[in-house]
Amino acid sequence: MAEKSYRILAINPGSTSTKIGLFEGEKCVLSENVAHDAQRLAEIGDVSSQLPYRRDMILDILDKAGVDLSSVDAFVGRGGGLLSLEGGVYAVDDTLLADARRGANGVQHPAQLGSQLAHEFAEKYGKPAFVVNPPDTDELCDDARMTGIKGVYRNVHLHALNLKETAIRHAKSLGRRYEDCDFIVCHIGGGISVSAHKHGRMIDGYDIVGGEGPMTPTRAGAVPVVEVLKYLKDHDAESTRKLCQRSGGFADLLGTSDAIEVCKRADEGDEAAKRAWSAMEYQLVKYIASMAGVLHGHVDGILLGGGMVHNQELVDYIREGCGWIAPVTAYPGEFELEAMAAGAVRALSGEEAVKRYTGQPVFTGFACFE
Q1: Quick one: average pLDDT of 330-358?
Q2: CB 250, CB 256: distance < 8 Å
Q3: 191 and 230 share a domain?
Q4: Dihedral of CA 59/61/66/67: which sign?
Q5: Is the per-residue pLDDT at 53 higher than 90?
Q6: Phi and psi dihedrals of 85, rounded to 5?
Q7: Same domain, yes or no, for 114 and 183?
Q8: Residues 117, 195: one domain?
Q9: Residue range of the domain that includes 73
Q10: What is the rounded CA–CA span in Å between residue 4 and residue 7?
Q11: According to the model, what pLDDT value does residue 294 have?
Q12: Spatial contact of 354 and 180, defined as CB atoms under 8 Å apart
């Protein structure tokens, strides 16, 4: 008997749009980027209050496309706003919704609407709602959490959804399970994530929101703390924070976060563009190689995803710098909708157990240092 081809609606809210994808099994049969009016969103105010506006626009698009939502087997959304949790597929319940609505992680981001929108549809049609590998996925090993300052610990903020799905897919291409493999996985786009995956867990990675890792088109990357303290003598803390999170890197050095433009300028002889691009590549190779040490040299593959992976020169540079560690495989672009749908299918088919969100962070400190 053929396996059931589950019908899934995946919902991924962004700053001024909401991406939706209707899937039948692994096949995407409808993909739409629902554009929202930025001024209208600003007038509405806080993120969670945008839900009715975004929901109605999504319903209008689906109605025009002739989609019967009663035929959908499950709804899945991005899981923003949650406290740290292990990776996996989570049922959307009251505890998860409460934290998503208020942004329990302290970050107000449209991603926290994902679970809320999925719940709205699921409740109406009597179907399950899920989130998959939310942004606050934290599976760091204990050694990765430590710093040399008492009471200060490393956190992790990475492109967990794409990173884990890339690893799951690559393991499958090898005829193996993700849980049986060790990978270094990168997402290379406006932000850059570099992570170590050991037997199905993302045991280390650079905190891209906290200012770790390589320079990116929109982030400064790691900077010596003493130099930051000097910088703060003439700049305020909030503007410095923005350099770490969204206005550093190419944006600060070159006035643009467009990697294609930076490459073009470099090719045309712009020395600043050449220097910035070269530094980013150099740092990428350095941080990727560091994860090989975390995995004790046992690396089944180095996997590259994200928009900048369309740049073959960048892929070749990484392959030349890190190919001695393990084979380098490129997966250009991102597949967040596909990743969410695949997680929902794994849950419905029983391939992956559905988890419950506890509302308690996975790590609060080491008792021996309290």
Answers
A1: 95
A2: yes
A3: yes
A4: negative
A5: yes
A6: -155, 160
A7: no
A8: no
A9: 7-138+337-369
A10: 9
A11: 97
A12: no
Quick one: which H or E segment has residue 71?
A: none
> What's the rounded mean pLDDT across residues 132-141?
95
For 187, phi then psi, to 5°, come to -115, 120
Q: Are 334 and 191 in contact (CB under 8 A)?
A: no
| CB contact at 8 A, 64 and 127 | no
- CATH number of the domain residue 108 falls in: 3.30.420.40
Question: By C-alpha distance, which of 110, 137, 105 is closest to 12?
Answer: 110
Q: What's the pLDDT score for residue 1? A: 36
Confirm whether 329 is domain-assigned.
Answer: yes
Same domain, 232 and 108: no
Do 49 and 173 lie in one domain? The reply is no
Are both 236 and 343 inside the same structural domain?
no
- 306 token code pair: 């994200």
Contact 9, 69 (CB under 8 A): yes
Task: Report yes or no: 62 and 80 within 8 Å, Cβ to Cβ.
Answer: no
Q: In what order do the strands lie in the sheet with 27-35?
A: 27-35, 17-24, 7-13, 74-77, 129-132, 89-91
Q: Report the distance separating Cα 300 and Cα 55, nearest Å.
A: 42
Q: pLDDT per residue over 197-227, tens digit each? A: 999 999 999 998 889 999 999 999 999 999 9
Does the structure show a pLDDT above 60 at 114?
Answer: yes
| Lookup: tokens for 211 | 């200012």
Q: What are the residues whose beta carbons fall under 8 Å from the beta carbon of 360, sequence distance 6 or more?
A: 83
Verify that 14 and 53 share a domain, yes or no.
yes
Contact 144, 196 (CB under 8 A): no
Q: What digits encode the pLDDT tens for the residues 138-189?
A: 999 999 999 999 999 998 889 999 999 999 999 999 999 999 999 999 999 9
**Crossing angle of the two packed helices 113-125 and 94-102, in degrees rounded to 10:** 140
